Amino acid sequence: MKKIEWCHRSTGGFTIIEILAVIAVISILFATLGIAVGKARQQIKIRAAQSEMENVRAGLDEYYENYGGYPLRNIPSTGQTRGLVTALYEYYECKFSYSMDLYWIDPWSTEYEYRLVDGGPVLRSCGPDSIVDNNDDLITR
User: Fold this and answer.
1) What is the number of other CB atoms lying within 10 angstroms of the CB of residue 108?
2) In sequence order, what E strands does 64-112 have?
3) pLDDT tens digit sequence for 87-109
4) 122 phi and psi, to 5 degrees?
5) Residue partners of 42: CB distance under 8 A and separation at least 6
6) Is the dihedral of CA 70, 101, 132, 137 positive or negative?
7) CATH class of the domain defined by 18-140
8) What is the DSSP string of 103-139?
9) Residue 81: CB partners within 8 Å, gap ≥ 6?
10) Bridge partners of 124?
11) Among 1, 23, 87, 129, which residue has the fewest nearby CB atoms (within 10 Å)?
12) Phi then psi for 34, rounded to 5 degrees?
């Protein structure tokens, strides 16, 4: 008499547990990669803001050498940059790379601050969290 095999098991495939384990490992790797990419983007924005502030500071120093002072016009107590950008825009005879709306915006879409402190310019970006007077603020003196 022949024996009937009711359960025929294939030996060439993967089990559902193995497939789920591979999917879990791949998900963890992608999550880790996403966090690393986010941090790298934030560092790029920080470096871009520092570079912009250093370039504007160099322009302010050149302005100071030619006019004997820093731009003062239309600078309200809030430190808005409209007067600064207007003055530098006119000084560089419209070769300035910022748009005609005359605001200077950092990489986080927050307006930079420009103030004169002790006779010298101070430029500030509120940084990644866009909150003033926090430990992530970027300041150029």
Assistant:
1) 15
2) none
3) 666 666 555 454 445 567 888 88
4) -125, 120
5) 128
6) negative
7) alpha beta
8) --B-TTS-B-EEEEETTEEEEEE-TTTT-TTSTT-EE
9) 103, 104, 111, 112, 113, 114
10) 113, 139
11) 1
12) -60, -40
- Residue type at 69? G
Tokens standing for residue 5: 């095999």
What ranges make up the beta strands (E) of 1-141?
113-117, 120-125, 138-140
By CB atoms closer than 10 A (0-12, 13-18, 19+), residue 111 is middle
54-93 pLDDT, tens digit per residue, is: 888 888 888 888 888 887 654 544 455 656 666 666 666 5
> What's the full length of the chain, in residues?
141
pTM: 0.65
